[in-house]
Amino acid sequence: MSERLAILIAEDNAADRMLLSTIVSRQGHRVLTASNGLEAVALFEQERPHLVLMDALMPVMDGFEAARRIKDQAGEALVPIIFLTSLTEGEALVRCLEAGGDDFLAKPYNRVILEAKIGAMDRLRRLHDTVLQQRDLIALHNEHLLHEQRVAKAVFDKVAHSGCLDAPNIRYMQSPYALFNGDLLLAAYKPSGGMHVMLGDFTGHGLPAAIGAMPLAEVFYGMTAKGHALAEILREINAKLKRILPVGVFCCATLLNISSKRGLLEVWNGGLPDGYLLHGDGRPRQPLVSRHLPLGILEPAAFSDRCEVYPLAPGDRIFLLSDGVLEASDQHGQLFGEKRLLRLLEANRQPQALFEEIQQALVTFRGEQQDDVSMVQVGLAEDDERPRPLAFADSGQSSVMDWSASFEFRALSLRHFNPLPYLLQLLLDVQALRPRGGELYTVLAELYSNALEHGVMGLDSSLKQDASGFAEYYRERRLRLASLRDGYVRFHLQMLPEANGGRLIVQVEDSGPGFDPARVIDTADDALSGRGLALVRELSDGFSRCPDGRGVSVEFCWSAEA
Amino acid sequence: MAITSQPSADGQELTIVIRGRFDFASHQEFRDAYERVSVTPKRYQVDLRDTSYLDSSALGMLLLLRDHAGGDSAQISLLNCSSDVRKILAISNFEQLFKIS
């Protein structure tokens, strides 16, 4: 049956000691004997027996004191002590247990009961050992896991913080290990100024939830830096997640495209709770509602990248949150819910205090700190008009500087394809132009959208004067673009070497009817007569309109650095 | 058991009933409910009448069922959704993938 144990017998009566020794060794155990408590403690220290049979009353040191000392020495390990006693009154028996005894056996000894008790105590001892081993193993695993999370978080923080979450117009609140709750917050400047912001929430928790964050962040930052539009980034992220994530894992997300200088907000929400566009002038807030399935569920062909467009004025803010806020529950299982949140939004007077107010409300509601909450507020950046430097994948050794190229993008391409990132890559092969990549992008983007929206599609920008006209404009833009059959936008690029540097001439033409210069000057907010034109003039080194009104030409010059 | 499944008499339809919380803890039980059945149903019904709560991993599990049932050709109805459950399904726009009633 059980393994051979080392059993210490402490008994001052020689006859009893002999009797016990015989019974125990017949059971197959190794016996150690002591005739008083002090000897027992010394022997325990030396031999570390598995179990102790302890007489209660002994000379020199009694069994109670000896039991206390042995238990002390044993530490975490369970060394069962069975008291041997002729004491019968309850109080004395209680003392045995209080001194650390685990059981007692009344004299005179009954062999069968003694055997049974040794067996029972041995089971208990082994159970205790197993528990200790498992506890240590779990502690070790947990330490590994935390270590891995720390490393993963450090790597991820590097990726995530290559963005611009610390921009002055962004406030955010995220629990430190939000990543392992599947929450993800990214922000990046667009080369043309303005920024893309994304709040995401992967299904599940822990490493599986965090794992999709890496490729997602890479796509988000990579494509934003190259000047891709939000819709293209969305399609790419969805396709990538669909390809790599197992079925059942997906990412609820809201993506924002904030164009400061055009005063424009584009929103795509798939599966996150309503975000809000909060107006600085007291107009009612605009909910930013989930219109799509989360990212990573639909096949690319079925995926919709359709964004909603809103005008954005100075003082406006966009507020996004993950479902951790709404799904916080109190001890009765009641959810925090949307109504409570809306009351907080309503009552909020100072934007910078909003997060604290929400957190305070959550703590009051739940009675404890919430650890899976992500919130972000984005405003219009005031000094965000300047284009940003671009990130490059390679160091661009070659600088061929004497060429020209023409591109004509016709209706079908215009419907589905954004030519700017590709043109830009071509141009930025010229190293000397790279420091001005952001400016170049901004100018090309302004000229392209002007050619497309007003030239090819004939949209009237005077529509954009109020909020409803604004929405109407972008609805119309989408409809006309989707059914575009004719028309083109042409880019003529000329790269000319000069004595001490070079010159780039970009001509943009479209198939539109051209414009009447007199009329353009009247409409103050036409994309190329108001802010757009000012920007193009400021950023380029030369600007002129073609005489027929169907095209414009800009120049960029540079001189070779020493 | 919180999740039970019952095939129709002709074996064409499998009804899965979920009681209480439907979250990650129900993962294995939910899978068993449609994997460990002797029939190969054409249609699935998930009865959420007694489902008190549903989280995003439950949405993931519904997608797994959809995958099991043939992906885009799957016929799955979510029945008797409470307003809370309906709201969660609506935020994720799951009505594009499931028949919700």
Automatic annotation (TrEMBL), chain A:
Phosphoprotein keyword on record: yes
Domain of life according to the entry: Bacteria
UniProt modified residues of type 4-aspartylphosphate: 55
PROSITE patterns: RESPONSE_REGULATORY (PS50110)
UniProt keyword list: Hydrolase, Phosphoprotein
SUPFAM superfamilies in UniProt: ATPase domain of HSP90 chaperone/DNA topoisomerase II/histidine kinase, CheY-like
Occurrences of domain Response regulatory (ranges): 6-122
GO biological processes: phosphorelay signal transduction system
Molecular function GO labels: phosphatase activity
PANTHER family xref list: STAGE II SPORULATION PROTEIN E, STAGE II SPORULATION PROTEIN E-RELATED
Name of the featured protein: Fused response regulator/phosphatase
Automatic annotation (TrEMBL), chain B:
Name of the protein in its database record: Anti-anti-sigma factor
InterPro entries reported in the protein's UniProt record: MlaB-like_STAS, STAS_dom, STAS_dom_sf
Chain segments annotated as coiled-coil in the UniProt record: none
MF terms (GO), sorted A to Z: anti-sigma factor antagonist activity
SUPFAM superfamilies xrefs: SpoIIaa-like
Domain of life: Bacteria
One Pfam family recorded for the sequence: STAS_2
Every STAS domain range: 14-101
Gene3D superfamilies (alphabetical): STAS domain (3.30.750.24)
